[in-house]
Amino acid sequence: MLRLMEGHVSLKGSWKQGGLLLVVALLGVALGLGIREFLLPSPKPVPPPPAASEPLIPRAIPIPHGVESHTTAGGLLQEINREYVDVLSRILPSVVNIFTARPVSADAGETVPSTDSDTRNSRRAPTDEETSLGSGVILSPQGHILTNAHLVKNAREIRVQLFDGRRYQAKLLGLDEPADVAVLKVEAKGLVPALWGDSDRLEVGEQVFAVGNPFGLSGSVSRGIVSAKGRNPNLSSSGFENYIQTDAAINPGNSGGALINVEGFLVGINTAIYSRSGGSNGIGFAIPSKLARFAYESLVARGKVVRGFLGVEAQEVDEDMQQAFNLPDTSGALVTRVEPNSPAAKAGIRRGDVIVRYHGMNVRDPAELRLYVSETSASAEIPIIFYRDGRSLTVQAQIMEQPEQGSRTEEGARWQVVRTGELDNAFAGLQIVNLDDSLRAQLGLQPHAAGVYIVDVEEGAPSLDLLQPGDVIEEIRKVGKPSDKIRNIGDLLRIAAGEHGKEPVLFYIRRGGAQTFVLVRP
């Protein structure tokens, strides 16, 4: 019993000891959780996914300044479209359709094939007049309209149709073929003039719109960019091409129409395309507004365009000319002729000088020089910088008004031809004659003009494809040596006989009313 008593007392002590251990364990767990909560940051709440009615808007398209942040991509496009519509709605009433009638010769009609297979039944189209379609731009409330000269030249009658369908007879106030612009006048009310823009501020890549009447479709608009500036696609030696090139569609009937920027300002007059098919190939040309405005204001005020005149003819500088004239680069206008008693002659400019700056502006080529001079007022004193014999010189030239061009007569003649033979130099393979009175008259030369006329250039000659039949050789210049005047065949043969080396020779020639240097390598 005692053992049992001892045994009962021992069991009760073990239960007390186990309970104490359990309490200690629970306290340890609670303490550990408290320490973890204190030391580790609490996780951030996860936001709920966007509602189905609020689609995510991609932000790759930049939002312009002034557009509210809640504008969607679709809303932005609508804003752009609305701007286009507003701009074009303002210019469309300013562009007109031009119809002209010209007298043509009796043999100029088009053949209209008959439905009968017998070709003897073919008939001729009417030949009394030719109707052409083009465009024009209203530039004053008084009814002045600017268009292309080639549309209205020799026109017997000119009619203008406004955007709202009204038609009027138009009067030709004047035209200027070198710039290909003409000014018409209509007596009409409620006209909407276009606003002039500054073509000099145009940048390549800038968006533009061509507005006109292609194929007679009134009020047509096409959009593109400025592809290039300063184009001279006709390579004219006397014109004033300085075209804006654009890929906006320009087709027959667009000529004379408006080229505008995104603000609706007139920056050009559409005038030509580069195409073999007659349709748009994405290469169109427009007269810059600066040049068109100059001609327009002069035609309105005086009935003709009054341009400045320096009195030089010039050619481009290539790498051969750069080397021959000891120039730093190929920019500039190489003077090939100086008009007697002209501003250039009085200022001391000579043939062979290379003009590189005019009135503080760099001269890249002869076309740029012509433009600068043409826009200069008569009597203005202009500083001109040029290279002569490798040295830079500066002169002051007093610009005068451009004189009228005279006409030239033509008549035929026969000559005694001299061949230069098989010379081992740049003079080989030429067939030449002396100038006589008949040749001088045919070429429009002065009675005392000297030189040698080229009848032909033989196959295998070093100058083949460089010199041409009809050229007049007036001077010979070897690189680094003084020039020699060529008065007749004897002068040329004497110089040719003394030339035994393989050095290139500069021929100074007259070609088709222009004068130029040609470098011939043996």
What does this structure look like?
The chain is of the alpha+beta class. Among the domains are: 199-302, Thrombin, subunit H, CATH 2.40.10.10; 308-401, Roll (Pdz3 Domain); 418-520, Pdz3 Domain (Roll). Helix content is 21%, strand content 30%. It contains nine helices and 30 strands. It has a seven-stranded antiparallel β-sheet with strand order 7-6-1-4-5-9-8. The longest helix is centred in the N-terminal third of the chain and has 38 residues, at 2-39. It is globular. It starts with a helix and ends with a strand. Keywords: Hydrolase, Protease. Residues 299-365, 432-476 form the PDZ domain. Residues 107-136 are annotated as: Disordered. One of its GO terms (biological process) is proteolysis.
Quickly name the level 1 CATH class of the domain at 199-302: Mainly Beta
Structural class: alpha+beta
- DSSP helix fraction: 10-25%
Shape descriptor? globular
Q: β content, as a range?
A: 25-35%
Number of contiguous helices:
9
Radius of gyration, Cα only, in angstroms? 41 Å
Report how far the terminal alpha carbons are from each other. Answer: 147 Å
Named CATH topology of the domain at 199-302: Thrombin, subunit H
The name of the CATH architecture of the domain at 199-302 is Beta Barrel
Strand arrangement in the largest pleated sheet: 7-6-1-4-5-9-8
Query: What is the typical, i.e. mean, pLDDT?
Result: 79
CATH superfamily of the domain at 199-302: Trypsin-like serine proteases
Number of strands: 30
Largest sheet: 7 strands, antiparallel
Oligomer: single chain
User: Spans with pLDDT under 50 lasting ≥5 residues?
Assistant: 1-12, 51-63, 105-128, 406-414
